[in-house]
């Protein structure tokens, strides 16, 4: 996620801006910049790379001026570059933005037609030109006009050369806080950037527009109705603030999944038309029909997402799919050719085995598509086409929000391809689109079971072995649940196709062994229950994951965690959440380093 800072007061703004941005580095970024009002002119200094690159660029030529805004960019639209870095300027205005302006293409066309000239590929720059276009002398009114036409998610801060005594900021679906000083005030995306300056804050809410001056902060809504806010006193220390008050990045990221899903769906589902769109993809119907096979290649959690993707593509788009572990794919002389599509999935976009597999697929003539969370990553740059997940930076080694957004990307992609190949009727698509729109709320409901899952994790944390069972999509999620548990709690965990148990593994089931059974797939539900009964017959302990309303599970399982009823294809994005929380709490009670488990790295850039 991008980072925003702002300063207005008696000191040199640039000092606070650069220091404030350094406190937001944990959010992940690829470029940085500041804008300062120097001698009543906006001076912008920005560049691609780390903050040190910006410091080097500034050198001793630090902008003088006591009002400014700054930004660290986590690229979404437009690769990392000096020109795409924020702040963006148009006329007398400078702005910084965290989020996604969904309707920027249409707004940009209208502005270009009016003669506006753009310098970047970003969605954000549109906001600066809109402000310039609407400004008739009243800064606040111009900002309100802009907010009436943009769609999407944003935290925004604006500066105007005509108004050297104020910064205006506002938010929708992205965080923004105001630090209240004495004769000076601060703006930031997150508390770590202001905690060393002041602990008195306004935590902004959606729709609030703040006019920040050295002597005070005035807040109104878009209709000019004044809003009074309570001062929030920050009690966290700096480290806790980076985790937004959560004990670990993993728990923070598990809880960020509703927002990650919202951001990844944003601009890709059309609720009126009940359709899926990928503006970034340029396949034609004929090209899609030429594809007679799809290979999905990835590692670890991304590989598990690929297995779910196989079910989606085969069942919805009726295309044969092979899923490979990248380190295997690259050495098995895969039968890839010009009529196949190879999809590589990678959160970091830098995993060495996956990058090598991508290059092998391209060498063999395949068309390639990357599903990745990092704009401008090696895999994103080398694939023919890219579908980004917008989960924001994932800091914990154990992947959580990246996984659910990968599933989301694969489902939306499958619906998109199915539509191009006419293998899915409009009614089915409409049902899936409606379920996708409700998914963030369903995940929020699922997260409310944390206490129940915490108790079960603590109960089973002393065990040496835990088994995960499921069939079809439930089996694919069981694989991910087992990886989560073993990689952070160091408990031996294995996932099995439930029907496979009797072919050997059943020998390992003895009284008391915990077995987690996923039972969300209605078409094979009875078979899964039979397997669950096989497990119970060996006196193993069963924790079942099922849909709310399926109370019959309580007749078979020792414990049941319910997830909100949803379309079977969306069940994986919900059923994985209890498994993530189970792993987190088991690791915690075993005293493991949840965010940095032993022997593991966040991005494996070696073979
Ligand atoms: C998952 O929790 C692990 N951190 C690991 O398996 C990871 O998914 C794998 O290394 C792939 O990483 P990538 O998605 O960045 O390519």
Any chance you could write out the topology, listing elements then pairs?
Blueprint: E1 3-8, H1 13-22, E2 31-38, E3 41-48, H2 51-58, E4 67-73, E5 88-90, E6 93-101, H3 104-113, H4 125-134, H5 139-149, E7 152-160, E8 167-172, E9 177-180, E10 185-188, E11 200-203, E12 209-213, E13 216-220, E14 232-233, H6 238-242, H7 249-255, H8 257-265, E15 269-270, E16 275-276, H9 285-290, E17 293-298, H10 300-317, E18 321-325, H11 326-329, E19 340-346, H12 352-363, E20 367-372, H13 378-382, E21 385-388, H14 401-420, H15 426-446, H16 450-460, E22 465-470, H17 473-489, E23 492-497, E24 514-519, H18 525-537, E25 541-547, H19 553-556, E26 559-563, H20 571-589
The protein binds 2-deoxy-2-amino glucitol-6-phosphate.
The site of 2-deoxy-2-amino glucitol-6-phosphate (AGP) has 15 residues, from helix 10.
């Amino acid at each position: 996620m991008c980072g925003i800072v702002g300063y207005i007061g008696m000191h040199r703004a640039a000092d606070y801006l650069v220091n404030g941005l350094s406190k937001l580095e944990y959010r992940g970024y690829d470029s940085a910049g500041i804008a300062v009002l120097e001698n009543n002119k906006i001076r912008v200094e920005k560049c691609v790379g780390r903050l040190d690159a910006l410091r080097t660029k500034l050198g001793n030529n630090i902008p003088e001026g006591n009002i400014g805004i700054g930004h660290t960019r986590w690229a979404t639209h437009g690769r990392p570059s000096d020109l795409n870095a924020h702040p963006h300027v148009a006329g007398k205005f400078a702005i910084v933005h965290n989020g996604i302006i969904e309707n920027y293409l249409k707004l940009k066309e209208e502005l270009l037609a009016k003669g506006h000239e753009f310098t970047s590929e970003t969605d954000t720059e549109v906001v600066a030109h809109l402000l310039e276009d609407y400004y008739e002398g009243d800064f606040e009114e111009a900002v309100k006009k802009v907010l009436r036409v943009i769609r999407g998610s944003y935290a925004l801060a604006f500066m105007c050369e005509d108004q050297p005594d104020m910064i205006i900021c506002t938010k929708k679906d992205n965080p923004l806080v105001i630090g209240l000083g004495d004769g000076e005030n601060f703006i930031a995306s997150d508390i770590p950037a202001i905690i060393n300056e002041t602990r008195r804050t306004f935590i902004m809410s959606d729709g609030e527009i703040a006019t920040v001056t050295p002597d005070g902060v005035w807040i109104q809504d878009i209709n000019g109705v004044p809003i009074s806010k309570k001062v929030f006193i920050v009690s966290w220390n700096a480290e806790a603030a980076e985790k937004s008050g959560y004990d670990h990045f993993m728990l923070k990221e598990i809880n960020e999944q509703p927002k990650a899903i919202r951001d990844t769906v944003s601009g890709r589902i059309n609720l009126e038309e009940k359709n899926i769109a990928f503006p970034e993809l340029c396949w034609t119907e004929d090209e899609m029909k030429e594809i007679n096979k799809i290979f999905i290649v990835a590692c670890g959690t991304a590989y598990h997402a690929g297995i779910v993707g196989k079910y989606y593509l085969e069942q919805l788009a009726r295309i044969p799919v092979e899923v490979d572990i990248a380190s295997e794919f690259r050495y098995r002389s895969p039968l890839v050719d010009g009529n196949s599509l190879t999809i590589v999935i990678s959160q970091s976009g830098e995993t060495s085995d996956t990058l090598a597999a991508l290059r092998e697929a391209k060498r063999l003539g395949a068309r390639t598509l990357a599903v990745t969370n990092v704009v401008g990553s090696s895999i994103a740059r080398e694939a023919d086409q890219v579908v980004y997940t917008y989960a924001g930076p994932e800091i914990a080694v154990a992947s959580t929000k990246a996984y659910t957004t990968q599933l989301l990307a694969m489902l939306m992609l499958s619906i998109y391809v199915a539509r191009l190949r006419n293998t899915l009727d409009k009614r089915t698509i409409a049902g899936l689109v409606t379920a996708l729109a409700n998914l963030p709320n369903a995940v929020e409901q699922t997260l409310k079971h944390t206490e129940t899952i915490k108790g079960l994790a603590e109960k089973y944390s002393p065990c040496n072995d835990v088994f995960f069972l499921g069939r079809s999509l439930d089996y694919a999620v069981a694989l991910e649940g087992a990886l989560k548990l073993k990689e952070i709690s160091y408990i031996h965990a294995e996932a099995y196709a439930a029907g496979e148990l009797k072919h050997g593994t059943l020998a390992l089931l003895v009284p008391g062994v915990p077995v987690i059974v996923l039972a969300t797939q209605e078409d094979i539900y009875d078979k899964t229950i039979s397997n669950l009964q096989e497990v119970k017959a060996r006196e193993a302990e069963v924790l079942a994951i099922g849909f709310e309303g399926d109370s019959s599970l309580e007749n078979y399982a020792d414990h049941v965690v319910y997830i909100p009823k949803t379309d079977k294809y969306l069940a994986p994005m919900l059923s994985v959440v209890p498994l993530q929380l189970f792993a987190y709490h088991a690791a915690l009670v075993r005293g493991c380093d949840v965010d940095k488990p032993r022997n593991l790295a966040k991005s494996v850039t070696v073979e």
